[in-house]
Amino acid sequence: MAYTWSSQAGITSRSLIRIDTLGLIAPQYRDRQQQDAQELLLALLDGLHDDLNLVVDAAPSAPLSPRAEAAQERLPEVIAADLEWTRYRERNDSVIVDFFQGQLRNRMECLHCQQVLYTTSTTFSPLQTLSLSLPAPTAQQKTVSLAHCIDEFLQEEIMHGNNACIIHLKRFAYTSFPPTKVSTRVTFPLHGLELGHLLPPMALASPSPYSLNLPHEPRTRYELYAACCHLGEDGSGHYTALVRRPDALSAFVLIDDEQVDPLSSPAAQAAALRGAEETAYLLFYRIQRD
């Protein structure tokens, strides 16, 4: 790993993660066929979580009774979310949860029960990657912003942030066969991705009126630290990665199989980031450093 970031990095044959090792927990990776990067990432994170989970042989979570569910529905949303997160953490306690997981709230409301006092049904689920649909490019709109994609996904939903935020851009449309690649250009910020407006206001109060276990984070500005890009079409293609150097906050390197390009000139880096707007498949954000 240190060699990858060194100024001498060029071509290296060092394998950081052996695919055949991952195949022990995910059989689909036992051969060396091309795989989807997002699916491989989830399999890797799930496998690491299972191995690192400090809770051993946890009993399955008992569903809430109708009475308890109705009582929870009447609570302030941030308190209900905190209760659900606490229940989840009772069975899931690992560094993967600490760094990569958050919580997504989904609320359904009956539009035909206006006279009933409680007409909503709220569920909370763990969030590991944020999968965003992309509009097909048109003559009028060939570029969209990452913020627009997030707004389209969330609408009335509320996302609770964490130290890292992994965003999955849905580059493949399965509305026809064979699937088609969506090459819409997505502009994404390198710094200052704002997610604070997605959090419940009570979660950001300082001091908070409640003692919360939620993975909420008052510092909700994120910076890009890596992008996984897909070149080619569905069923055939190639992955590359742009990764921020740990020793230079504004510099990225381009990793293409064994080739590590330090992108030593500003023009080379700008060109690589510009190209990633059409090919980015996974975006890795972290809490922005001050």
UniProtKB/TrEMBL annotation:
UniProt xrefs under Pfam families: UCH
Domain of life: Eukaryota
The USP domain, residue ranges: 1-288
GO molecular function: cysteine-type deubiquitinase activity
SUPFAM superfamilies to which the protein is assigned, alphabetical: Cysteine proteinases (SSF54001)
Protein name, entry field: USP domain-containing protein
Record GO biological process: protein deubiquitination
InterPro entries (alphabetical): Papain-like_cys_pep_sf, Peptidase_C19_UCH, Ub_carboxyl-term_hydrolase, USP
Native source species: Rhodotorula paludigena
